[in-house]
Design goal:
Chain lengths: ~550, ~325
């Protein structure tokens, strides 16, 4: 993109020819990244941060699976194991799941709505650095002599000074308060951007589906994260300032913590899945060569999920003794959320049906998502049947369920998005061969890791135990899980290798390698810092389809 | 310990719900996954590039209504069966009455052991305290003999889970929960704490001994008595009472009245030590008293640095507490 106007020196570095940019010393490059407010660079930093924490969280998982291979194993002691599952859960939810989705959203929401950047670029940068800093703070707990060992949902009063001596729990709570501020900043930014910066002609009913899901994810962020921040602040007050929020002998309530946490915790998992629903809703149409079936119903279902998911939190508390009526209410609400989720599923299938399906890596991972998320959703229905949950709660069945939806859902869908959009971000295609290896190792490894957990759970194995007795029939399922985890390890290594080496070995992608239909494919790969030379006017949900098919544009049918 | 091997009406009721839910979700899986697999096979793009895009179908109101209505009906059905099972399984605790054949026990969860305070049986006040191994009478076709457990916690959250007998109920400090167990199957039922409660959560095991009515009455009679005072171990008893053991442990009939640790009055009537993780034998008991930490690292009983002589005397005394 040539510039007809003399640009002052120092700005718009990304506009300069590539060879000039490469001749910038590494300090200038580092300074550029450290001070950038460009949503694209911030998005990339979020994703890189998430992948680093993914590897750390994965190592924590492998260590636990090693310890659980044999009954009464002495590979790790109880303190190490308890710290590992606390850090593994905290890392994966807060420093992998949310940042990677916020990162991809950061990069692509402005592009997909034809905007130049997010509404608040400096807030955007602040949000990233604060999220990263929160993650670092939580890991700094190791310098206190050990990480917190309270579990990622940290039930009071285990988190009080009496039962968690030392400062690790304080680092944990403070780190999450800090990164929560970053998350809220991201949520605010997405809402302002999506509501205020759409291209001419792009009404809210015409936004790409990924943008719609990022909007509703952001509303959930604003409703869910502040209660968590408040609850974490209460822990700090209890631990450091002599308060008694959760201090039962002095009039506090351990039960209150559970309600506060799960009021955050349940919408949190929808924060982790709605953007993924959005990504696969972009990918499945392109790779089936058909428009998304039932856009309005999909959009309404998204809203339905966002609302209903705010009312199901106490299905994590069925065993707490709330009474029959509350148990029933939360069971009914939990069942209800399956209806809009099912609607989305059927619409994806209807999009594929009658299409011409092309299994490039984005579609392969989307298939993985569809085939697996269905199962995770169905075990969720089992858990929603409150009396059945009296048996299944806090057992390995739940561990199997949530890993199934998080890996089968969030991770497969995110990998689909990464393979879809990597060409736009870097200008290069990822290796399809490596992607296939990654996919099959992950698919098989993940089924082998988490499938057996449903069985050991049903056989009475509770979660969060650092060892177990022989003779209950649990050994074989634990061993299969560990084997599956080992099969997963190379798949992540292949992903990282593919992401890095394709930067110079990948085929040049061009603007639109997938023959897709949304606005990000209308600019170069990678886009210039200002995204679009001309802000396009859109008439339908698939502006590029309209351009490519002027005789049969979408706006005649929508 | 399988939840699918129910030994009580409550657990059985849950299995019925589980099977129903599994059949419903299984059918949904077969249909939906079937459509998915069929679609990816039938509509896969052949290797040769096809010209032109397939017909673009934007949506269909009747289809959307249909696949909204069908799941709604399924949800309605699931709500009905869930409600029925919920009312079946969650029972309110009655008051103790003579002739009710019902046992009432207070369970207090501790880090990392279970305290049982036997309140009453069949209307008779009991009033003794034991630890870690629950005894209850078996029911038969003529007489139901349930036990109502009142669940409290002395420290953090725990959970009482004996899968073959019932779903789990949590022990939350500051709250009082209730769990009913009732079974026609005599014998030992196993379980363990199911809410992460700190370092030794994994080793907070549950043992429920379902005795015949006669066995149960014998056990009650023995437990109700104060500790045996055998002259052969008088020196060991003196040593025990002079140590800090009495700050935590109780032995009824002696000055030892500690409440922080398991009641030892009838220690030798238990089959296990350390909340179920080791067998109760003279050797293991001696190891435990010498230093509990290698057996249950992080547990709240330290080694007391006893001399070998004191150690032997105390263990001999404990072995007399049948």
């Amino acid at each position: 993109m040539s510039s007809l106007v003399e640009q002052p020196r120092g700005i718009e570095l990304a506009d300069r020819p590539a060879d000039v940019a490469m001749n910038m010393g590494w300090t200038a490059q580092a300074h550029e990244w450290a001070t950038t407010v460009d949503h694209k660079k911030i998005g990339i930093m979020y994703v890189v941060m998430s992948i680093v924490f993914l590897v750390i969280g994965g190592i924590e998982a492998i260590l636990m699976r090693w310890q659980l291979f044999y009954p009464r194993s002495k590979v790790l002691d109880q303190d190490t194991f308890n710290q590992l599952f606390t850090m593994h859960g905290t890392t994966m939810v807060f420093f992998v799941g949310m940042p990677i989705l916020i990162g991809i959203g950061n990069y692509f929401v402005p592009l997909m709505i034809g905007a130049r950047d997010m509404a608040f670029p400096r807030l955007n940068a602040f949000g990233f650095w604060v999220t990263l800093f929160g993650g670092v703070m939580v890991y700094m707990s190791y310098i206190t002599g050990g990480a917190p060992a309270v579990g990622w949902f940290a039930y009071a009063p285990l988190t009080s000074n009496t039962f968690s001596r030392g400062a690790a729990t304080d680092f944990w709570a403070l780190g999450l308060i800090v990164s929560g501020i970053g998350t809220i900043a991201g949520g605010v930014n997405f809402i302002a951007t999506i509501l205020g910066m759409r291209a001419p002609g792009m009404t809210l009913r015409k936004v790409p589906f990924f943008v719609w899901t990022m909007l509703w994810t952001s509303f959930q962020i604003l409703l869910a994260i502040p209660p968590l921040t408040a609850a974490l602040t209460m822990i700090i007050f209890d631990r450091q300032l002599g308060a008694h929020f959760f201090d039962v002998p002095n009039g506090g309530s351990a039960y209150l913590w559970q309600h506060l946490f799960w009021f955050f915790g349940h919408p949190e998992v929808y924060i982790l899945i709605l953007p993924v629903f959005g990504m696969v809703s972009e990918i499945i149409p392109v790779f089936s060569r058909k428009v998304l079936f039932g856009y309005e119903f999909m959009a309404a279902a998204t809203m339905g999920i966002a609302f209903i998911s705010l009312s199901v939190w106490a299905h994590h508390m069925f065993c707490v003794g709330m009474g029959r009526m509350p148990d029933l209410f939360f069971a009914v609400a939990t069942f209800l959320v399956s209806i809009p989720t099912g609607i989305k599923f059927f619409n994806w299938l209807a999009t594929m049906y009658g299409g011409r399906i092309w299994f490039a890596s984005p579609m392969l991972f989307s298939f993985g998502f569809l085939s697996m998320f269905l199962i995770g959703g169905l075990t969720g229905i089992m858990l929603g049947a409150a009396p059945f949950d009296f048996q299944l709660s806090d057992s390995y069945f739940v561990v199997g369920h949530f890993h199934w939806v998080l890996i089968g859902g969030t991770l497969f869908g995110t990998f689909a998005g990464i393979h879809y959009w990597y060409p736009k971000v870097t200008g290069r295609m990822l290796s399809e061969r490596l992607a296939r290896w990654q996919f099959w190792l992950l698919y098989i490894g993940f089924i082998l890791t988490f499938g057996p957990m449903h069985i050991s759970g049903v056989l009475g194995m509770p979660r969060r135990i650092y060892t177990y007795d022989a003779g209950h029939g649990w050994e074989i399922w634990n061993q299969l899980s560990t084997l599956g985890a080992l099969i997963q390890v190379p798949s992540y290594a292949i992903l990282v290798y593919n992401l890095i080496t394709s930067l110079w070995k990948g085929k040049p992608a061009g603007d639109d390698p997938w023959d897709a239909w949304t606005l990000e494919w209308m600019t170069t790969s990678p886009p210039p810092s200002y995204n679009f030379e001309e802000v396009p006017t859109v008439h339908s949900r698939r502006p590029l389809w309209d351009l490519k098919h002027p005789e049969d544009p979408d706006w005649q049918y929508e | 310990m399988s939840i699918f091997a129910p030994a009580s009406p409550g657990a059985h009721s849950i299995v019925d719900l589980a099977i129903l839910t599994f059949v419903v979700t299984g059918l949904i899986f077969v249909v939906v996954e079937g459509v998915l697999l069929y679609s990816v096979w039938r509509f896969r793009q052949p290797r040769v590039e096809q010209t032109g895009e397939p017909p673009q179908v934007y949506g269909s109101m009747p289809i959307e209504v249909a696949w909204t209505a069908a799941p709604t009906l399924i949800v309605f059905f699931l709500v009905l069966v869930t409600t029925r099972t919920l009312w079946d399984v969650e029972k309110t605790q009655p008051k103790s009455k003579p002739g009710d054949n019902t046992l009432f026990v207070n369970v207090i969860g501790h880090q990392w052991w279970w305290e049982y305070v036997y309140e009453s049986y069949d209307g008779r006040i009991l009033g003794f305290v034991t630890a870690n191994e629950l005894h209850m009478p078996v029911s038969d076709d003529d007489t139901m003999r349930p036990v109502y457990l009142t669940l409290k916690s002395a420290d953090v959250c725990h959970s009482y889970w004996v899968p073959r007998l019932a779903g789990k109920v949590d022990l939350i400090p500051g709250r009082v929960n209730s769990l009913m167990l009732e079974t026609k199957e005599p014998g030992l039922q196993l379980g363990q704490c199911a809410e992460f409660c700190g370092a030794q959560h994994a080793n907070m095991l549950l043992r429920v001994n379902v005795d015949t009515p006669e066995e149960f009455e014998r056990w009650l009679a023995n437990e109700s008595k104060a500790a045996l005072e055998e002259s052969a171990v008088a020196d060991g008893r003196a040593k025990f009472l002079a140590q800090s053991c009495v700050n935590c442990h109780a032995v009824r009939g002696t000055p030892a009245r500690g409440t922080y640790a398991p009641d030892l009055t009838h220690l030798m009537s238990r089959q296990t030590l350390a909340s179920g993780i080791i067998e109760n034998t003279p050797e293991t008991l001696a190891d435990w008293v010498r230093d509990p930490q290698p057996i249950k690292p992080g547990c709240l009983m330290p080694a007391f640095g006893l001399t070998e002589r004191d150690q032997q005397l105390i263990v001999r005394y404990l072995l007399s507490l049948r």
